[in-house]
Amino acid sequence: MAGEGNKGKYEFLYHIADAKFRAYGSTMEEAFENAALAMFNVMINTENLKPVEVREIETTSSDIKMLLADWLSELLYLFEVDGIVFCEFKIGRIEKTGEGFSLTGKAWGEPIDLSRHSFDTQVKAVTLHELEVQEKDDGGFWVQVVVDT
Fold it and tell me: What secondary structure letter does DSSP report for 51?
């Protein structure tokens, strides 16, 4: 799997059939951003991509774990439908609302060009299996995701 220059942002974990990773951040927003980076590095080495197009993303969910799944699923949807492979992510805010949680963020990337882009693994979907969002004892956050490959 790609993305060796992203040490400390995320790590890939063993999973028998799919791709599993844990992403870290000093804030929940940063942990979600690094989870997106990890997911795209399952597919391609993002270090060689250029952030030439941006997509704005807003999503809401009933709980924080579903918000993470919805954020990653929306990015995967834009990848598939708009043909953009993302390499940079910025979440403006994650807020608790009366109904649950909301997220506002942006993702930057470039149009898929198969003459230049070599994909390692296809990510089909974000799963709810072993999905975690946790605050660390020493501050900061980590999230864990399994994606169907």
Answer: -
Domain span at residue 45 reads: 17-148
Nearest-CA neighbor of 23 among 148, 137, 133?
133
Q: Decide if 9 is inside a domain.
A: no
Q: How is residue 46 written in tokens?
A: 């993002």
> How is residue 141 written in tokens?
């956050």
69 belongs to a structural domain? yes
CATH of residue 122: 3.55.10.10
What are the pLDDT digits (tens) for 33-57? 999 999 999 999 999 999 999 999 9
| Domain count for the chain | 1
Residues 91-144 pLDDT 10s = 999 999 998 999 999 999 999 999 999 998 999 999 999 999 999 988 899 999
How close are the terminal C-alpha atoms of the chain, in Å? 12
The residue behind tokens 């804030």 is 27
Query: What percent of the chain shows pLDDT beyond 70?
Result: 95
CA 19 remoteness from chain centre: 13
| Residue 36, number of CB atoms within 10 A of its CB | 28
Reported as type and span, the H/E element at residue 139 is none
Cβ 81 vs Cβ 112: under 8 Å? no
